[in-house]
Amino acid sequence: MTSFNKSVAQKLSKLSEAQIQKLFSSITSERDALSSIIESLSLGLIILDKDYKILLSNKAAERCLPLSVRPLPKNESSKLWELVADPKISDFLKACFEKNKTSASEEFSVRASDGQIRFIQLTLSPLVQEEKLEGCILAVRDITEQRKQEILLHRMESLAGLTNLAASVAHEIKNPLGAISIHIQLLQKAVKKAREADGLLPDQKFLEKYIDVVNDEIANLNKIVMDFLFAVRPISASFELLEPNPLLHKFADFFAPEFSSKNVQLKLDLCSDTTRLLLDQKLLREVVTNLAQNSLAAIQEKFKGKDGGLFEIHTAVKDNKFVILIKDNGIGMSQETLARVFEPYYTTKASGTGLGLTMVYKIVKEFSGDIQVESREGEGSAFVISLPVPQTDKRLLEAK
Fold this sequence. Notes:
- This protein is an alpha+beta fold.
- It is about 45% helix and about 25% strand.
- The protein has helices spanning about 5-10, 15-40, 60-65, 85-100, 145-160, 160-195, 205-230, 245-260, 280-305, 335-340, 355-365; strands at about 45-50, 55, 100-110, 115-130, 130-140, 240, 265-270, 275-280, 310-320, 320-330, 370-375, 380-390, 395-400.
- Strands 2-1-5-4-3-13 form a 6-stranded antiparallel sheet. A 5-stranded mixed sheet has the order 7-9-10-12-11, covered by helices on one side.
- A hairpin with a 3-residue loop joins strand 11 (about 370-375) and strand 12.
- Helix 8 packs parallel to helix 9 (about 280-305).
- It is elongated.
- The model is unreliable at about 395-400 (pLDDT under 50).
């Protein structure tokens, strides 16, 4: 309401019917204009009273939020969190209401009707009228494209690092190609010389000697190329905002019976933090399962099925990183193995492919994380995975 309308409203009893009608029309026009502006915004907005009942909302908010009722009912008894279909968003809104928080921001991942994962940011701000807190304003932003761009940027940065790898591969290819060229030239000269003389081919052992070298170098080339293709092949990750601790507990429950049957104690020490990370649940399971199987093999090699084996998973939040420590007291690794542990096709197992830990490394990097390993022969190994905590504004200020 304009200052003019306010001053006129204070003298309402002295106004004529025509003047009251004019004032009413002016107020209605202002409200309609405000509603049109709010409805035209690409930013989702929901205006709430002190009881979290909806006073006003726009279509953008209804498009972004996973709702159980559409359109959102206004001026009714239902509280906003009762109308939200996603339990995490509903719990967040309810917690803000119960704790009287009017300034808060949080991100959520939701599955759209088409099955795609979308990222939503909710921001609460106080609604103040005449210096009194009358409710709050909920801003709803679809930040899916922003998150996708961040993921794409990370992948592009990773691809930029492949320049050195490609140069290294080119150098590696150069040597076997040179050897192949030289030995083929030797074969050609020997055959030509034989034809110019008695027409007989060179001795069979002479030919096989050079052909064997050529075949060995071709196999070496094939391995180099396959290693390179494995290193550069992108991982298809479907990211969601997920709490890692419940997932780790779920994974541990899956392989616990196997550990128990082989007399290996399984220990979980998960922090109480409810931090959510950008993760792909299937890929995280692949990381943990791979490390668990490697640990189990190392423990069995040391204890031969007897008691004493220990496999541990610890978590903590430190310096804006979610840290997962996976360790065992198995046979450990030599310094040579430790230095090459993430290399494609490097394995110390007779039946191993040498790709498991390489895939672990690639997945952690896809999560924008880092992985370090420490090991001592005869004592065990420890893998430390550090994953970034999404940088959202989590300042939840108490309303005054």
